[in-house]
C-alpha cells in the first residue's frame, strides 16, 4: 500500500512541474514576441506603445478599442506624407505592421508562395484549432473551387438567385412594416447564398438558414472569449464556454443537411451515372475533391465555412446600401428606372446585371464609406521577408493593409467623406480604357475591401452579383425609408477591426410593398407564375388586361369577384391549333380575380406553359 505522504509528495512535485512548464512557456513566448518587436523598431508606431515585455499592453489595446479607426487613418496619412509607407499599431489581438499602397505591388506579386499565407492570418483571428476550423484550413479546396467553378458559373445562377430573393423578400416583408434591417437582410443573404451552396433543398431549409445566419458571429464570440488566455490554456477553457455548444450544434446541423447530398453526389460521380449536373457548390466540390477531401464530413464542414466567409460580410454591405438609399432618396428613382429598363430588355442574366452601372456604382460607394473590415490582407510572415528597400520582416510578423483608410484618402477620392453614388459610374464613363477597374468586385491599390493579389477574396464576384440582385429586387418591389422622424443613417460600430452587427437591434427601416405590374401608365408584361400571392395587381380598381398562354388545352374559366363593380370574366386559353392572336380577350380584372386566375393556371391539368403572362395596358 502506498503511503499517503508519498502520494502527497508526488502530487506536489507534479504541480511544481506543471507550474514550471507554464512559466517557461510564457517566458519563451514573451521573449520571442520581444525579439520580433525589436527588429521592427525603425518602423513608426501609432497609438500607445505596449512597452517593454508588454507592461502597457492592456492600455494599448484599450486605446485601439476606443479609437482604432482614427489611429489607423492618422498613421496612414503620416506614412503616405513621409513616403515611408509603413507604420505599426497594436490592435486587440497582436501588433501589426500596416502596409500602404506603396508596397502593394511588391507584396502581392513578387513575394514567393508560402511566405505570406492567407490561412495563417485567418487561423490567428479565428483561433481555428479551438473553433474546429483547422479541418478546412488544411486544404485549399474551397478557395480553388470559388476561383474556378463559382466564378465561371455565375451566368446560370442569376435567374435562380432572383427567384430566391423574390421568394424570401415576399416572405420576410409581406406587407407594409418596419423591419430590423440587419436581422432581415442576413436571412435573405443566407438564403440566396445557400441556393448557390446546395440548391433549393438547402435554401428553403429553415434550420440550416438559421445556422448560416448565426454561425459567423458565434465563432467570433468564442474566439474573443479565448483570446486573452495563453494558447495552452484555451483547449481546457473551450468546453466550458456557452459558445462551444453552439458551434457543435451548428456543425451537427450542417452535416445533417449536407452530408447525405455529398454521399449521393460522390456515388454519382464515381459511377458516372449523373444525368444532369447541378449548378451548385456541392457539385463542384464533389468533382474537385481528392484524397482526404473526399470525406463527406470534411466536405460538409467546408459548407459551414462558406457561410462564415460570405454571409456576414455580404449582409453588412447590403444593410449599408439600404441605409444609404433611405438617407438619400433622390437616388431611388434613377436606380429603379435603370433596373426596370434593363430587366425588361434583357431579363435576369449576368449580362443584364452588368448593365446596371449606376446600381453598381452606388453599391461600391456605399462599401467605400462603410467597410466591413478596417484592415484587410491580414497575413502572418512564415519565413523572413526582405523587401527591395531593405525592410526586413522576421518570421512571425503580422502584416495588414488599411482598407478603410485608403478608401478615405483625399488623394485618391476627392471629397472622400461625401457620399457620391455616381462616383464610380462617372469614372467608368470618362475612362473607358479602365472602366472595368471601377466596378464593384475588382481589386487594386485604391480598392482593398476584398484584399489584394492572388489571394484576394475568391467569392467577391458572386458576392457582387448576389448583392445587386437583392438590392434590385428591393428597389423594384418596395418603397423604403427610415422610420418617421429619422433622416440620418445609423453610425457604424467597429469592434476588433470589423463592422459590428450590434447595429441590428437599433437600426430599423420602413418597407412598403410597391403596387405590382402595376403602374397602369406603363406597358409591361409579367410572368403569372412569379407573382407573389399577396401582390397588388394595379393601383386603380380595374385595368385592361390580355391573357397570353401559348400552349395548353382549350379551357374556359368563369372567374368571379367579390367586388360588385367587377364584370364576369371568361378566359379562353389557346392551343397550338387555335392561335393566340384569335384568343386574346380584353376584360376588367380585379385583384381577387387575378389571383384566382393564377391559381387556376397553376392547377390546370396541362404542364406549366413556357410563357404565361399578363400584359397590362392603360384602360
From TrEMBL:
Heme binds at residue 457. Its cofactor is heme. It comes from the Eukaryota. The keyword Nucleus does not apply. GO terms for molecular function: heme binding; iron ion binding; monooxygenase activity; oxidoreductase activity, acting on paired donors, with incorporation or reduction of molecular oxygen. CDD domains: CYP503A1-like. It holds the Pfam family p450. Keywords: Heme, Iron, Membrane, Metal-binding, Monooxygenase, Oxidoreductase, Transmembrane, Transmembrane helix. Belongs to the cytochrome P450 family. This is Cytochrome P450. The lineage of its organism: Eukaryota, Fungi, Dikarya, Ascomycota, Pezizomycotina.
